[in-house]
Design brief:
Length: 199
């Protein structure tokens, strides 16, 4: 099955979806663009949540999902808004999607070394995972070794103050970036810094 077929199946029944297979199919599809950043929708989302404008927050979340239905944060916001509105079925749907996507990342390793690095599709997922584990990033560095690329985020736990390095395998987004450079004839460059914009 290709990405569109797997996505349609997951949308029909997220509880039974194989989210790892779905994520890998997305990375192989023409829709994959890990460094495309919808700044307007993200800003609208943050502003709407701050103002508790649920209609605007849901609209921004839907805009982000229309561009990438595997956007974890957008599903989490949709879950939050529908929960506040008492729309339990819709909240549960987006919660199942978010949990499935997060679970697929956490199942790839524990993030404590290169060998057990979390496999991510984008830099944004790194910060989502870190936050959900209770950590805040204080430093990021890129490591290349044995034909693999890793983002290493130094995190500080928001409650205990514990400091830990988390490794994220970025072969998929980094490989996409290098391929785009090859297609454009531009020299290869390093990964963007997490702002969602290419250099």
């Amino acid at each position: 099955m290709d990405y569109d077929e797997l996505l349609a199946a997951a949308q029909a029944s997220p509880a039974g979806a194989d989210f790892h297979t779905l994520r890998m199919a997305y990375a192989r599809s023409g829709a994959y663009a890990p460094y495309t950043f919808n700044r307007a929708s993200v800003q609208m989302l943050h502003q709407a949540l701050t103002a508790r404008d649920l209609d605007a927050a849901l609209e921004a979340a839907h805009d982000l999902l229309s561009a990438n239905y595997l956007d974890i944060e957008a599903h989490m916001v949709a879950d939050y808004v529908h929960t506040l509105r008492g729309s339990g079925e819709q909240a549960a749907y987006h919660r199942a999607f978010a949990q499935g996507l997060i679970g697929a990342i956490l199942a790839t390793g524990d993030g404590r070394s290169q060998d057990t690095a979390f496999i991510v599709l984008s830099t944004a997922e790194e910060y989502t995972v870190l936050r959900l584990l209770g950590y805040q990033s204080t430093m990021q560095r890129l490591v290349r070794e044995d034909n693999h690329a890793y983002d290493v985020l130094h995190g500080r736990h928001t409650k205990t103050g514990q400091e830990v390095d988390f490794y994220f395998n970025i072969d998929l987004p980094f490989g996409w970036l290098q391929h785009q450079s090859f297609l454009s004839g531009a020299p290869p460059h390093d990964e963007p810094d997490g702002s969602g914009e290419t250099p």
